[in-house]
Every structure is written in structure tokens, then in C-alpha cells.
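Q: I have 336 residues here and want to know how they pack in 3D. Can you give me a structure?
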Amino acid sequence: MIKFMNFFSVLFLSLSLTACDNKPEDIHVPDVETAQYENPVINKSAPDPSILYVEGKGYYLYTTEDIRNMPVFHSTDLVIWRQAGTVFTNATRPTWETGGSLWAPDINCINGKYVLYYSMAIWDAMATSGVGVAVADKPEGPFTDRGPVLRSHTIGVVNSIDPCYIEDGGKKYLFWGSYHGIYGIELSDDGLSIRQGAEKKQVADVYEGTYIHKRGQYYYLFGSVGTCCEGLKSTYTTVVGRSESLWGPYTDKQGRSMMQNHHEIVITGNSYFVGTGHNSEIVQDGAGNDWILYHAYNVDNNRGRNVMLDKIQWVNDWPTIVGNSPSSMANSPKFE
């Protein structure tokens, strides 16, 4: 009886607090008594998440524009998310790719500014796609577009989307690509353009949704394979390889190269969620535990590609999640 009353008390309180925003579907209410959460943590179509922790404010999450102009979500606990706005408005959205949509953002803090790389592309028009960049003084915006950093027809990489920014050895780099090779190139000091004279270099073959994570002596290249966007028929799978150098070679546990499409599986679908891919950056909770967000289709309630959350465990210096597939319910991240 106590548990029954606690559940409805929490539900009533949550609805009371969120009545003004008129978007109760944005809010996920964790089980307070057991400190657990349920997936998905954002139960609406918000693919290709990218996340940034801002000191004193919490976590900000940016996704492909299934919500027009690229939604920005905010959370203090990685579980309860509220939409905080959009990166652009109809008046400020980029126009350098006529008819293009905004996909796969990558958010960063560079030189005291919030710098968001984004893909601008037309479905099935891979030769005209590209990666742009926008800048803001606050994580929720407003963001000012600075135009394209690179485009497929000028950089010589078909389907130039899915950007990933990383700093290494005092230098700034951008990695990108989608099923026609994953490439990287050095950026200017402000991160807004390609460094003069820099040349692209390929680090992996048929992947997309690139994210490189540095931990200890290793660089981990996360990617996605399979079909992303076919609803419950999607085969998207999150995979990883590792290297002792930013530029590779990235290999699986047997030392086979991602240039030949060898990798380890991190997250694959199950009977509850399918199309599990395009992961975010790895972030930590208050107890130092690592967490990863990604998108998937909910078999029982297909509302597009929802945002999922799972805990990363490191086994022999390899990232994994329990069962290599999404949790339906799990222990919540820990915060004071």
C-alpha cells in the first residue's frame, strides 16, 4: 500500500509542477522509492543526441530536427528532460543548402563559446551534404550560424555528415562521414574553419555517427552500422574500435581494423527496442559512473527514434552495457 501511495503522490506532484509547460510527454518520472528510471528517457522522436555538461546548470542535449530547428533539452539528472528551446528559429536557420534539413548535431565548449557543429543535407542527395557550425554565448542559445565548415563536393567525401569534434595535443579536429568512409581533419584555432593547408585522413570505412572518446591510453571510435530509419525494421547497431593514436589504426579485440569494417558491438536491439544507434558523448554522473545516450525505436509505442540512456561499464578497457542491449528499467544515475 505504501508503494502504491508513493507512486501516485509522485505522479500528482509531477503533473502539478509541469502543468504550465503543457508538454507532459517531455517529462519522465523516475520511481523515487527504488531510484530507478525507465527507457526511453525522451519519449518522442529526437534522433542522434549530443550532450554537454555545463557547470552549475546541468546537462544540455541537442538532436536532429524531427522537432524543427533542432531541439535543445535540459536535465539535471540525465533522466528527467525538458525542452529548453531550439538551436535556430525559422528566421535564423541556415540557408546554405537549399531545402536542406538539420541533422546530427555535435555540441562543444570552445574558447568560452558554445560551438555546435551540424549536418545539413537532403535525403538521397549525398553529393550536396555538408557540415556547418553555429555559435552561442549560452548553451540554450540563441545560436548564430557561421555557415559551412566543409561540403561533400569540395572536400571530396560523399555524404559528409555526422560531425564529431575533439581536441588532442593542443590541436582541434573534426571527424565526419557516413557509409563512404570516416575522415578527420585539423581545424583552425577557433574551431570554425579548416586549418589552412590541412589534409583529410581516413580512419574507418563503412560507419556513421562517429564519436571519439579518450580514456587512459586509448582512443575509442564509436560508430553505427545497419539501417537507421526504417521504423521497427531498422537494424542500427552501436559499435566501437580502439587505438593508442587519434589517427588509428582502430581495431577490434582481435586487432582487426575498422578500415576493413571490424569492430565490437556495444548496443544492439532486443524485443523491446530496435534501431539502437548514433550515440552521444559519454558523460559522468555525480558518483563518477559513465553513461551513454543514443536513439532507438520503441516496439510497444513507436513514436519515432526516442532517446535512450544506459550505463557504460569498462571491461578490460572495452566499453559495454549490460547484455549489449537497451535496458527497459535500470538504476538511476547518482547525484548528491
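Q: Anything worth noting?
A: Residues 102 and 220 are 26 Å apart (CA to CA). Residues 1-33 have pLDDT under 50 and may be disordered.
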